[in-house]
Design a protein that fits this description.
Layout: E1 4-9, H1 24-32, E2 34-39, H2 46-55, H3 59-62, E3 68-71, E4 76-79, H4 92-99, E5 105-108, E6 120-124, E7 127-128, E8 134-135, E9 138-141, H5 145-153, H6 168-184, E10 189-193, H7 197-204, H8 209-230, E11 238-243, E12 249-250, E13 253-255, H9 257-263, E14 269-272, E15 275-278, E16 285-290, E17 293-298, H10 306-313, E18 319-324, E19 341-345, E20 349-351, E21 400-401, E22 413-417, E23 429-431, H11 435-442
Parallel strand pairs: 1-10, 1-11, 2-23, 5-6, 5-10, 13-20
Antiparallel strand pairs: 2-22, 3-4, 6-9, 7-8, 11-22, 12-21, 14-15, 16-17, 17-19, 18-19
């Protein structure tokens, strides 16, 4: 057991990635403690899995059905902006405070974390000015915490966190900032999001040479960082728990649910200055897509058509299933926030949000890194078209994706503990719903 647990949430990390030659840091932790496989709960996407880690509940209970939400009353989609109150259930920071009020916790760069019960929080929150410019900033708790980090480390490099310039510098800043906090305040639970493996895996595929390079690069950084942590006053007591949020699969095809709906006369667009925008208020149905799943929302009064709309997608190449109404229980998403139809891709395909057929009429935001105005997730933002000096409109560029239910060994991720505590055994299998209990076990609070 430990009084200082550091949890590293690393999307894309698989057990097969761990070896003495390519990942000596992670391998060393596993060799001292244990390495197991983890099964993420569908949908296997960031916000959902993180909420599952913190609550120990599945999405049907905690309500985080994707990385974004659709407000049916306002006809608005919001991605990457929700506060912590969207998560139902008791979270790990609240459990710590209830069981041992003297214990402190910190969380870095997680989703839906603003306003949570942790003592220290940092997560990106750029300020969008009225003139269209953007000011770098992060939400932090306590007040003034980010300013202290800014004075020490400079701004969090948002341009390296997402977009064509995404690279290890964002992870480096997160780890440096976390070490500053460990040196000064030594939180008992440190929950840290490590984004680096996501980039190369989505751009080039999870089994590409680029993805392997990213793995080696990350492990080297973790080694340097953990050496620094080891030299802090609490360093001798630190235990590392590492979990792959999800595993990516190689993709060779793209499905465009909104184009399917438009061709069926179900999705409406409006033309503004020669560009087509989806008209959510007038559409019978539209798809909020997120990697390898899509929530198809049917307008109130037309929900009886959900089963009919699901049939539109059944048998479509690249679509593994279309679940309408009560059938959503089969995949654990019969929740009021879910679409009336939930689509699941084959694991070699992913869903793109495009609704236009001619790129000339695509909305201007489609060619920019604009994670809030796009009514879905867009991994093409990782690419750059030098000829147009903008984001390309070629969804086939994406070579890796995630989100499908775990049905194959390749969908499983890694779970590593740096201490031999008896709470994990090498070669076993755990679910992401077990993580909260394992954290409490490691801290002697179960």
């Amino acid at each position: 057991m430990t009084n200082h647990l550091i949890f590293l949430s690393i999307p894309g990390l698989r057990s097969s990635d761990i070896s003495a030659s390519s990942t000596p840091t992670l391998f060393g932790w596993a060799n001292r403690g244990a390495i197991a496989e983890m099964i993420p709960t569908f949908p296997c996407v960031t916000s959902t899995v993180q909420a599952t880690f913190w609550t120990g509940d599945d999405p049907q209970a905690h309500g985080v059905i994707a990385n974004g939400f659709y407000d049916r009353a306002r006809h608005e989609v919001e991605f990457w902006v929700a506060h912590n109150d969207v998560i139902a259930g008791d979270q790990i920071w609240d459990e710590l405070r209830t069981r041992r009020p003297e214990l402190t916790s910190a969380v870095w760069h997680a989703q839906n974390i603003k306003g949570c019960g942790a003592d220290f929080i940092v997560t990106p929150a750029p300020i969008h000015e009225d003139d269209g410019t953007m000011k770098l900033w992060c939400y932090s708790k306590p007040e003034g915490f980010y300013q202290e980090l800014l004075d020490d480390l400079g701004h969090f490099p948002l341009q390296h966190y997402w977009g064509p310039l995404a690279n290890i510098e964002s992870t480096r800043w997160i780890l440096r900032a976390a070490q500053r906090l460990i040196e000064r305040s030594a939180p008992n639970l440190h929950w840290i999001y490590i984004p680096h493996l996501d980039y190369a895996a989505q751009k080039h595929g999870p089994n590409s040479a680029e993805a392997q390079t990213a793995l080696v690069e990350l492990d080297q950084l973790l080694g340097e960082w953990s050496n620094g942590v080891g030299n802090t006053p609490s360093g001798d007591d630190v235990v590392y728990l590492v979990a792959g949020e999800y595993a990516l699969t190689d993709v060779t095809g793209v499905v465009y649910p909104n184009r399917v709906l438009r061709e069926a006369g179900l999705l409406s667009v409006r033309n503004q200055d020669g560009h087509e925008y989806v008209d959510l208020a007038s559409s019978v149905a539209f798809a909020m897509v997120d990697h390898q799943l899509a929530h198809v929302f049917v307008q109130p009064g037309d929900v009886s058509r959900a089963a009919e709309i699901a049939k539109t997608f059944e048998g479509l190449p690249g679509v593994a299933g279309a679940y309408a109404g009560r059938r959503r229980r089969e995949i654990g998403l019969d929740h009021e926030r879910s679409g009336d139809v939930v689509l699941v891709a084959e694991d070699d395909h992913w869903f793109a949000y495009y609704w236009w057929g001619d790129d000339a009429v695509a909305p201007p935001f489609a060619r920019t890194v604009d994670i809030h105005r796009k009514p879905s997730y867009d991994p093409v933002e990782l690419f750059f078209d030098a000829s147009t000096k903008s984001i390309p409109l070629d969804a086939s560029l994406v070579k890796g994706s995630h989100g499908v239910p775990v049905t194959q060994p390749r969908h499983r991720t890694a779970l590593i503990c740096s201490a031999d505590t008896g709470f994990m055994e090498s070669g076993t299998t755990h679910r992401d719903t077990d993580i909260k209990r394992i954290m409490l076990d490691l801290m002697g609070l179960a």
